[in-house]
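Renewal narrative, Specific Aim 1. Our central claim is that a sequence can be written position by position from structural information alone. The example that follows is taken directly from our test logs and has not been curated for this report. It begins with the structure tokens describing the chain, in the order in which they were read.
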């Protein structure tokens, strides 16, 4: 990987490869493009088998994208560094988590993500075909949901952008009991009234039941958790002055809620009545 093609190939044993969990999350970009956050977590025991603290680890990273006809679109190669205090606990293992933003035109792509540990020489390769959807500038929409271990919002007097948030992604989407489920998403094309204000509502339901969101009859206007049939329901209303909103939540679940969980997120523009919905799954383990 990363280097030019050699004159001959030497097969690498399976023991020299390691798995990297990853997640690709789509947001609205600029000028009709879609911005992807490529989130990944590198297993600590693969690049730091000694477990020594205060030690730096360097990994070569390559991201390659091709269109439907295998024409190169993106080719990013860089060296990334981790410290032992960058560790996150995911699924009873320790990982170094990071993310890379990529802006693309809507369409079909062939995607490759590669890593090589500088110290051990171990490698990871991910190949994935996917469709980049369109975000329209005249239609109420919400982005994908990004799952994180922790997120730190910016302290700015101006409207922030996603790059102002500091977060550690959780591409495994696995949380331990008592660990907050951190989610981030964006809302686009909110309508403004004559005073230049927006008015919208956000609701979410979390539980093992995959029943449609329309079954929720009572809409909450203030954040409130309801312990009913092993599910969490919450809702709140916002008044703002921006046509796009950046949203994040730290959700604390009931300790008895474990296993595969579904979150159903719904946003409604209260000035027009238009709504948008996303469904995603994650896991909670003991």
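The sequence written for that structure reads:
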């Amino acid at each position: 990987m990363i280097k030019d093609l050699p004159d001959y190939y030497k097969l690498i044993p399976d023991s020299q490869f390691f798995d990297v969990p990853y997640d690709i999350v789509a947001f609205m970009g600029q000028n009709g493009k879609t911005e992807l956050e490529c989130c990944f977590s590198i297993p600590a025991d693969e690049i730091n088998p000694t477990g020594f603290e205060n030690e730096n680890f360097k990994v070569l990273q390559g991201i390659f994208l091709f269109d439907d006809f295998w024409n190169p679109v993106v080719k990013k190669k860089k060296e990334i560094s981790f410290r032992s205090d960058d560790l996150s606990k995911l699924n009873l293992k320790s990982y170094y988590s990071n993310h890379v933003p990529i802006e693309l035109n809507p369409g079909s792509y062939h995607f490759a993500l590669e890593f090589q540990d500088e110290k051990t020489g171990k490698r990871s390769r991910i190949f994935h075909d996917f469709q980049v959807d369109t975000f329209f500038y005249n239609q109420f929409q919400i982005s994908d949901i990004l799952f994180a271990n922790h997120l730190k919002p910016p302290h700015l007097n101006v409207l922030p952008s996603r790059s102002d948030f500091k977060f550690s992604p959780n591409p495994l989407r696995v949380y331990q009991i008592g660990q907050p489920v951190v989610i981030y998403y964006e809302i686009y094309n909110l309508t403004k009234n004559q005073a230049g204000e927006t008015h919208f509502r956000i609701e979410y339901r979390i539980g093992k039941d995959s029943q449609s969101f329309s079954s929720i009859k009572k809409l909450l206007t203030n954040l409130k958790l309801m312990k009913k049939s092993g599910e969490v329901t919450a809702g709140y209303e916002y008044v703002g002055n921006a046509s796009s909103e950046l949203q994040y939540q730290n959700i604390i679940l009931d300790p008895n809620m474990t296993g595969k969980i579904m979150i159903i997120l719904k946003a409604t523009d209260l000035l027009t009545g238009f709504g948008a919905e996303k469904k995603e799954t994650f896991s909670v383990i003991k």
